[in-house]
């Protein structure tokens, strides 16, 4: 039994992830990545290598987009839900994001204000919890 266990543990399996997961971790829009990236599994070592020394296609995607919704939301200072309420459901390029910032439509102003209030409330709650924890010591 121990011999079998030793053989099982001595085989180092390479952990892989789906291309969608790797794209998410890299902060890029999967559909904009090269076909070879979309078609194969990505190992943790490959992901680490891509993060440490990004190839030109990854640098271009990060700089110009199209960007996935979480990145778009972050660049605009709103939540992902706020993007949806504003009618933004697709990936946007950096140029499109900059145009939206320049245009500063009413929905964007409203969502930024909402996001700012949420952040303030989060800080307030965190401080309140810290204060309670301090009092209970």
Total strand count, please?
2
SSE arrangement, N to C: HEHHEHHHHHH
Please give the domain count: 2
What is the structural class?
mainly alpha
Mean pLDDT: 88
Ends distance: 51 Å
- Low-confidence spans: pLDDT under 50, at least 5 residues? 1-11
Work out the strand percent: under 5%
Assign an overall shape: flat
| Major sheet: arrangement of strands | 1-2
* Sheet having the most strands: 2 strands, antiparallel
Work out the helicity level.
55-70%
Query: Over all CA atoms, what is the radius of gyration?
Result: 21 Å
SS element count, helices: 9
InterPro entries: DUF5997
Question: Overview of this structure, please?
Answer:
The structure is a single chain. By secondary structure, the protein is mainly α. The chain has two domains: 15-64, no CATH class; 67-137. 69% of the residues lie in helices and 3% in strands. It contains nine helices and two strands, in the order αβααβαααααα. The chain has a two-stranded antiparallel ribbon. The longest helix has 30 residues, at 106-135. The N and C termini lie far apart (51 Å). The relative contact order is 0.10. Residues 1-11 have low confidence and may be disordered.
